[in-house]
From TrEMBL:
This is Uncharacterized protein.
Amino acid sequence: MNYLYAKTTQVQREELELDEVEATLALR
C-alpha cells in the first residue's frame, strides 16, 4: 500500500512539473 501511494504521488509530482514547464513556455 505504501509503495502504491508513493508511486502515485511521484506520478502526480511529475505531472505538476510538466504543467509548470508548459506554463513557462506559454509565457515566452
